[in-house]
């Protein structure tokens, strides 16, 4: 019996390792499930998808389900496409500026500096309305920076072909904008040539034989306002002498409100070349209330009525002192042109006519007075009440230009 029991025990021993092997396989699958893989591959049947547990990173399953299979090579991240994008409606292509793109800053540095602007022959226009006016007048665009594609769709599509279009962040435009509320689009144009530009037909139809000459105007806001008044009055041309602020400076463009593309502007002229841009038999009138000979002529009229302010009288006294110095040196008389002075609302505008507006600080130049004397022009007086300083240059220009318009139209009507 003992022998039999020993036999049974001996025979049952080989069964223990088999049970242990099955138990190990089961535990191995349980541990595999606890690892929370992205895909679990069973010996038979489809793969089961599982979401990774909280705080765990998903793993990629081995290719083919075999533990000895090589891992799939990780694909490199797709690089940001630098190829131009396209919008279907127009077929135009534009670039997207990548971080660190210096094209916007480089261009802005050029167009915001007058020497660079004159050397490169480029100007900056900002805002959809101003850009649209420039395109309509035939200005040649070079580059557009915009923050939304919709801004380009508001412009004439045929004018944008062949132009570099670059989409940038609105924050980048805001950093370089001169506007309180940027409109999200800025255009770089070739400096317009008044000969090649196409001005509106309505403006040409209402143009008058009237020119404006700006003499040493240095305030951008005043010049922009004066250009706006010249366009509104129907001036046929605006001449800017050397010493004036650049007409294409951003502040002048903003104050002009599109007047740059309504009336021809000729910039940076010396006085010797000014007569070349005047029609034959043009009379030049100077808006200046002061002068040595002006005092003698209006002393019985303007000063008696209180039309001359203290500032004007001090300037007249300065003219007298300068004349005494000239006489002492033996330079002779007649150094200051003698011009007749009359009120601005008297009959003076004859076609063609030109009006000279001087800067507020220094007034009109001696060259302008000599030009007026040589053409038979006069000195125009705008009366002001005592205690009031002389008028702003932009206001004086508006008064004289629209008065000239009134007089010219009266002469034209039978």
Brief characterization of the structure:
By secondary structure, the chain is an alpha/beta fold. The chain has helices at 2-12, 15-34, 103-111, 114-120, 128-136, 149-153, 170-176, 201-205, 220-233, 250-256, 292-298, 310-328, 366-375, 393-412, and strands at 39-40, 48-49, 85-86, 93-96, 122-126, 141-146, 164-167, 185-190, 210-215, 237-241, 265-269, 283-287, 341-343, 353-358, 379-381.
What is this structure's SSE topology?
Layout (H helix, E strand, L loop, with lengths): L1 H11 L2 H20 L4 E2 L7 E2 L35 E2 L6 E4 L6 H9 L2 H7 L1 E5 L1 H9 L4 E6 L2 H5 L10 E4 L2 H7 L8 E6 L10 H5 L4 E6 L4 H14 L3 E5 L8 H7 L8 E5 L13 E5 L4 H7 L11 H19 L12 E3 L9 E6 L7 H10 L3 E3 L11 H20 L2
Parallel strand pairs: 4-7, 6-7, 9-10, 9-14, 10-11, 12-14, 12-15, 13-15
Antiparallel strand pairs: 1-2, 3-4, 5-8, 6-8
Helix pairs in contact: 9-10, 9-14
Task: List the defining traits of the structure above.
single chain; about 425 residues; alpha/beta; 60s Ribosomal Protein L30, Chain: A; Alpha/beta knot; 2 domains; disordered N terminus
Instruction: Point out poorly predicted stretches.
Output: 1-8, 60-67, 76-81, 291-323, 329-333
> In the CATH hierarchy, what is the architecture of the largest domain at level 2?
3-Layer(aba) Sandwich
Q: Residue share in helices?
A: 25-40%
Mean pLDDT: 77
Describe this structure in words.
The protein is of the alpha/beta class and 414 residues long. It has helices at residues 2-12, 15-34, 103-111, 114-120, 128-136, 149-153, 170-176, 201-205, 220-233, 250-256, 292-298, 310-328, 366-375, 393-412, and strands spanning 39-40, 48-49, 85-86, 93-96, 122-126, 141-146, 164-167, 185-190, 210-215, 237-241, 265-269, 283-287, 341-343, 353-358, 379-381. The protein folds into 2 domains: 85-190, Ribosomal protein L30/S12 (60s Ribosomal Protein L30, Chain: A, 2-Layer Sandwich), CATH 3.30.1330.30; 201-412, SPOUT methyltransferase, trefoil knot domain (Alpha/beta knot), CATH 3.40.1280.10. Strand 10 (237-241), helix 10 (250-256) and strand 11 (265-269) form a beta-alpha-beta unit. It is 36% helix and 15% strand. The strands form 3 sheets. Strands 11-10-9-14-12-15-13 form a 7-stranded parallel beta sheet, with helices on both faces. The protein contains 14 helices and 15 strands.
